[in-house]
Structures
1.
Amino acid sequence: MSQSEPLPEPEVPVLEVRDARVDFAARQGLWSRGSGGTAKAVDGVDLAIARGEIVALAGESGCGKTTLARTIMGLQPMRSGQVLFKGEPVGTSSRKLREHRRHVQLVFQDPAAALDPRQTIYEVIAEGLRIQRIPGDESELVAEALSKAGLRPPERFFLKYPHEVSGGQRQRVLIAGALALNPQVLVADEPVSAMDASVRGEILQLLLKLRDELGLTIIVVTHDLGLAWMIADRVAVMYLGRIVEIASAEDILTKPLHPYTQALLSVVPESKHLEQVILAGEAPDASRIPEGCRFHPRCPLVASGEAERLGIATRCTTEDPALAATKQRHSVACWAAEESQMTTAGPGASP
Amino acid sequence: MNLLETRDLRVSYATSDGPAPAVRGVNLSLQRGEVLGLAGESGCGKSTIATSILRLLPKGSIVEGQILLEGEDVLTMTWSRLRAVRWTEASIIFQGALHGLNPVRRVGDQIAQAILIHDTKATAKSANARACELIEQVRLPVRRARAYPHELSGGQRQRIMIAMALACDPKVVIADEPTTALDVMVQAQVLNLLRDLQRELGLSMLFISHDLSVLVDVADRIAVMYAGKIIEQGPSTEVFRQPLHPYTEALGAAFPEIGDWKYRKAPVGLAGDPPDPLDIPSGCSFHPRCPQAVERCADDDPKLRNLSASRQAACLLIDELPRGSQ
C-alpha cells in the first residue's frame, strides 16, 4: 500500500557497516578461575541503511543489537570493520567522531533516568547545542527542536523541569534533544519499553512522522517484534552477534525463513495464530559461539531430525552459513533455507 | 462461596500532599481453580490490590472495605493469624526475582526454610525433600537446589520464586507481572510453566499484567483497571477480542497482533498520561483522554454495569448504545 514495497535501491546508503566485529573481554567473576577469553558481541555484520529508512534491530538480550547500534554511532571501538556515513569512512580521531555523532543521534531508553532532574528542559536541549558548538540563535534552535518533537508551544516547556511534564512528554524532550543537532540518523534504543502502554503509540507515531516530514533515517533497537510491525520498513534479526535474517518488515514478520526468527515470532504474545516454538535455555554466551551454524544447538530443525532428513545436519554443525539473499531483499543465514530455495527455485517466488 | 473476594476495597497511600487514593472501590471475586487477569497501566492500582490482599502495604496506608479469603476478612485478622495465612493461604510471585531471594543462601535452603516456618509438622528432612520436589516441579534439575541466586539466570530465579510461592500449597497464588523483566523467549518458558502448573495443581490465581495479550493466554476472566477502579470485566477472549470500554480498546491497541494490517505503520496511542492519584479528573476519570468522550462524561462518573450475563463495563456511552456483539 505504502511506499515501502520495493524500496528504491539507494545510490549511497546514509549509513553502512562493513564486516563489523566488536570484542569484549569476557566477564570474569571475582573467584572465577582461568582466563575469561573474549566475547564476540558483534561478529561480522554488514548492513546498509538507506536515507529515510526505519530499520529495526531485533533479538534477545545479549544478541549484540545494542553493541551494533553503539558501533554505528561511533561510541564503540571495533576490532575490525568499517562504518561509513554517506559513503565516507568515519574517522577515529575525536574531532571526526564528534562530527559523526552530531549526524547520528541517540535517543535513550528511559527518560526518567536520562534526564537530569535539576536541569530545565531548555538547558537539556541547549547543552547539546553548546557541546557541538552549533551556530545560531540558541533559544530559536531550542524552540524549533521542541516543536519538531511535538512539544508546542515550545516556550511553555522552556523553564519546566522533567518531573513537571508527563512521561510521554519526557520522551519527547529526549527526542527534541537529539533533533536540535539536526541529525540525519536517529538511533532509538528500546524507545518505548519504559513507557506505559497507552503512551507508547504516541511516541511511535512521532518517530514515523519525523521520518516522513524530515526524511530522518531511524534505527530502532528493540526486542519487541510488535513494535517493528508498527513502524519498521526493514527488520534485521540478530543472534549471537550476527544478523541471521533481514528483510522487509512485512516479509520477515509474516513469512520468516530462519528457524530462529520463526521461534522468536511464535513466542511473542502478539502473535496468536502461530504455534509456539519455545527454545530451551536462555540467550547463549557470546564468549562461546558454537561451531558451524551458531544457532544449531538450539535449532528446532536440528533437534527434530528435519535437518538430517534434508541432508544438511553435518553442514549445520560444521559450516557457518553466510547471510544469503533468497529473494528480493530477503536474506537469511540458514542451510535449510538455502536448501529449500534450491529445490523451489523458479518463478513465482511471492504470491 | 468465592475463594477470594474484595468488597468495595479502597486503599490510599500516605503522601506529603495528603492521602493518595490508589484503589477506589473495587469488587473482585475469584472462584476456586480460576485465573483472574488484572490489567492496567502503572499507577492504576493493580499492584496495590495484590499487596493489600496479604497486607503488605507500607505503613500509613489507609485500607477500607473487605478482603475475604474463604469468607474470612484479611483486614481484621490478628498478626499471628495473618502470618499463618501468608504462604499457606495466599502467596505472591513478584516481578523482580532477584530481590526476593537471599543472595547468601542456597535457593533450596530458602524454599525449605519457608516450609519449616509455616508448616509446624515439617522436619528439616521433610522440608528439604519437599524443596527438591518443588524444584523439579518448576522444571529445574534437582541439583540446582544447591545453587546460590547469582548462579542462576533470570528465568531460573523466577522459577525458584514460583517454587517458593507453591511451597505451602497456597489456596491463592498472586502473580504480579511475573514475566515482565524477562526476555521474550524466557517469558514464554515461564508463562508456559505457570499455565501447566495451574492446570496440574488446579491453582487459583490472580494474574497481574499490563499486557492484555499476555493475560488472554493465561486468564479465564480479565478485569481492566483505570485510576483505581475496574472499568471493564468479562471472559478474557471477549475482553481481548471485543473490548467494550474505549480504554480497554486503547490498551489492546498498544500491543497489536503482528500481521494485523490495521496497525501496520499505524501505531495507536492515547494522548496524555494516566491520572495522578492526587488529581483524579471529575466524572469519568478517563474522559480527558477518551477519544469518544462527550460533554456529560466530565460530570457523571459511570458505574460498572452488567451488560450481559458475563460482561461488565463502566462507560456512559456503552449504557446508551451497546457496541460489541454478544
2.
Amino acid sequence: MNKYGTIKVIENRYKIDGVHHFMDPNMPIRRADGKLCGVTNPRSMNYIHSYGGEAVFFENLSQGRLFGSKCENPDCEFKGTVYMPFRIHCPDCLGKNTVYDLTETAKKSSKVHTFMITERTGAFNTLKKPIKFINVEFEGVSTILMGYLSVGEPEIGMRVVPIFRKKNPTYTITDLSWVPEGTSDSKLPEGFSF
Amino acid sequence: MIKFSKQQLKTPELMRPVYLVTVGMSPFARAFPETRTEELCVEAFTEAAKFIGMTPAELKKYIHTCYYGHFADHFGDQLLGEAVIHDRLGLDPLGNIGVKTGGATGGSTIWEAVKTVASGYSDCVLAMGWERMDEVPTDEGNHLISCAADKDWETPLGHIYTGYYAVMAQKYWQVFGKQEDSFRRTLAEISVKHHGYARFNPFAQAPMKITVDDVLKSPIVAHPLRVLDCCLMSVGAACAIICDEKTAYELTKNPLLIYCTAGSHSLRPACRRDMDIPLLPNETPEQYKNLDKEFPGGERYPGFTGFLAARMASYYAYNQCGIKDPTEDLDVVELHDAFTISDVQTYEDVGIRPYGYGRAYVESGDCYHTNPKTGKPGKLPSNLSGGLIGCMHAVGATGIMQVAEIGYHLWNRWAEIHGDQKRWDRYGRSKPKDWTDLQVAGARRAMAISHAGVGSHVTATVLMHPDAKLR
C-alpha cells in the first residue's frame, strides 16, 4: 500500500492530493562518553518527475513494445541514425527524432555486449540479487542499452530477447528485462512475458 | 560530439601564464563525526598559507575570486554549501561560484581557476574542494552516488555505481586482458601499490600492507571488481592558490606553471556512434589499424574499454603545453584510480601506453617510485599519494589533492609534508617504522587526471617548473 498521496496532471498542471512527506523525531548522536557530536534528521519525501518525450518508451514497455528513436531530418548529416536508449532529439542536428519500433529488431538481433554480476546494491534497489547487468547491442542501432538478465548466466556475444512486465507494471526501466534466446515461458519471472 | 570540426579541435590557449603558488589539505577519513566541513576547509587553507610562510589572513588579502568544488549536495543535505564555506572562510563579499562535475569536480575547479587568471579577470584565485560522504550509511551513499547515472535509464538498475564500471571491467578484461589470470593479477597489483604508498602518507585514509592474493580474495563487489579494487568513500578538503606571474612571485620564490584542460563524454558508455580514435602526439593512425584483429571486440570507439573524455582532455593538454610523449616528458603523475580497471584504461587514454597495452605500464615497473624489477627509479611513477584507492576520494577535493601531491614533488618538498612526525601525531595516525621518502628526485613536470563517473568529465592538469616548460 502506497502511503503517499496521488499526483495527476490536469490542464497541464500537477494536481497534488494527500500527504507527500513524512518525518520522525530527530535523535542526538553522542560519543561513548556522552559528549554531543551531532543529530539525525529522519524524513522521507516524494519526488515528482516528468518523463517528457520519453514517456512513450516507458508506457509501451507494459504493452510489450520496445521503442527507440530515429533521426529523419533530411538536413542532418547523420540522418537515419537509430538510438536505443531512446533519445528525444538527435544529438547531432537537435531535430526531434521519430519514435521507432525496435521490438522485432530486439527479438531477432540483441546480443550481450558486456555484463557484470553483483550481489551488492545501493539502498532502494528493487531487483532480485544477484543482479546480472547486461549491456545490449542491436543490429542497425548506433548505441547500447543497459538492462538486466532474468534467466541464466550472461556471456559476451550471447543472444538475448526482451521480456516485459505486462502485469503490474512499474512504468520504470525495470519493466524491461532480458532472457537468453530460446527461454521458455515457464521460466520467466512473475509478471513478465515476451 | 563525434565528428570534430576544426574549431572543436583548436588548441586551448591561455592569454597569459598561470602559476600554482601553494596547496593545502585536511586529513582524509571515512567519517569525521566531530568535525564540521568548514573546519576541514579552514585546515586545508591554513596549510596552504603555512606552506608559503604566511598566515591565513595574509594570504586572504591576495584572493580576488573563489571557486568551490563540491559534488554531492544530497549527501550533506545542505544546498549551496559553497556559500556556507565562503562565509566561514571570511571571504565575502568576493565573487564565488560552485563547481560540480561528479568525480572530476576537483579537477574542474582547478580548470575554472586557471581560466579566470589566464583571462585577466583575477590575479589570485582560491580553488577549494571538499566532500562530506559520512552523513548517510554506505548503502544509501551508494544510492546517492548512483543518482549520477541517468535516473530513468540506469540508476534503477541496482542503485550501485560500481556496477556501471564493472561492465567496463568485464569488457576490458575479456578484450584487452584476454581473460588471462596474469592480467587479473596485474589489476590486483595496482591496489597493492596504492594501499602500500598510502602507508607513507599521513593524509591517507586506507594505508595497508597487502598482497595480490589479499586483493583477489577480498569480497566481490561487482564481478570482476572486488572490494580492494575499489576507491574509498571519504570526507576531507583540499585547496590550491592560482595566480598570475607577478602575484605568484610576490607570494613565493617557486611558483609552478599550471595548465588545465577538460573533455567530456556521455554518462552512458558507448552511447554515441563509432568514431576514429583521436590521436595524441605520440600515436599514429597506423598503430590502431589492426586493433580489432589484435584484440577481437576492441574495435568500437568510444566503447566500454576506454574513456573518450580522458583522451580529449589529454589531447588538449599535450597540444597546449607541448607534451610530445607523456612517459618521456613527465616525471610523476596522479591518475584517477576509481577502480583498478579504470586506472589501466586511463594509461591508454592519456597515451602512457597504446590502447590494448595499458597493463605493460604496471608490469614493466615504470609506474612505481622504485621499479621493483630493476631497483632503479620508475620511469613515470603514478599515484604515490595512494590515489583514490589508498588515500581518498572525497569527490570535490580529489582532483585538488592530486594537484597538491604532484606539486609537492615538483617543489621537492614531498618528504617535508609527508614525513613530519608532528603531522602524523596531530592526525592521530601512526607513522610506520619503515616510512619511506617517495620524493621523485629531480621532478620538473607532472600531470593529474581527474575523472567523473564512467568518464563523463575528465580534466588534465599539468604542472611544470618555469625553467622546464616545453612551449
